[in-house]
């Protein structure tokens, strides 16, 4: 039992770190499962690896509560009109909803097909390498360019729907990284690193809550005591680790580019290919 709890802790640790750094949480979880097997049923593990993302997303909610919660005590604005809702935040959530549509419609409809076709080490390795190269290329191409969009309020509906299609790529190909795909897409569209990263965080809230709810309903809410404990340990560990990872990333990108993550992805992808070819 203790061994299984330690394994759950390890899975939560990996989830919390890799969910927000653009290096693919799903890809790392698939690879970790190759070496560390939880002593649970296949159906429970399929649910577990998605639902522990709730711990990660709760970290975003806690850190950015003041930026994502639109309701407050009624107070007068400069015109003396009493308001209890932040209009800018509500508009942001509408943009997030639009950006979620591609992954929400196509991703959910073909989820089982994507898992059957692409959730394997080879596809993970290829996606790691391809988007690693993309990060390096984009950073070099935009080295001396000033971003066109420097705040979430400046994101147009056209821009957010395009970002949503980049997120869809991650829903199809594990190893792409949901945060990595959306950040790459945003950078290509002229969005600053900070805005691209924050919008990616906020975009994850409905996507990951929806994915977790879908998996929970599909599995059912009946757990053995050990399963419940494993899930709780994974959730709490992912939450705590995510807080650290998010704060680290936001400080890091203020002075550095995403190139280091690109190189990491390429090296990891090559190692994965070599390992499974020689296995």
TrEMBL record:
Keywords, comma-separated and alphabetical: Antibiotic resistance, Cell membrane, Cell shape, Cell wall biogenesis/degradation, Hydrolase, Membrane, Peptidoglycan synthesis, Transmembrane, Transmembrane helix
One Pfam family hit: BacA
Topology of the protein relative to the lipid bilayer: Multi-pass membrane protein
Coiled coil spans: none
Enzyme Commission number(s): 3.6.1.27
Gene Ontology molecular function, alphabetical: undecaprenyl-diphosphatase activity
Residue stretches spanning the membrane: 44-65, 92-111, 117-137, 157-175, 195-217, 229-250, 262-278
Signal sequence residues: none
Reactions listed under catalytic activity: di-trans,octa-cis-undecaprenyl diphosphate + H2O = di-trans,octa-cis-undecaprenyl phosphate + phosphate + H(+)
UniProt miscellaneous comment: Bacitracin is thought to be involved in the inhibition of peptidoglycan synthesis by sequestering undecaprenyl diphosphate, thereby reducing the pool of lipid carrier available.
HAMAP family: Undec_diphosphatase (MF_01006)
Primary role: Catalyzes the dephosphorylation of undecaprenyl diphosphate (UPP). Confers resistance to bacitracin.
Family of this protein: Belongs to the UppP family.
Protein name in UniProt: Undecaprenyl-diphosphatase
UniProt source species: Ligilactobacillus faecis
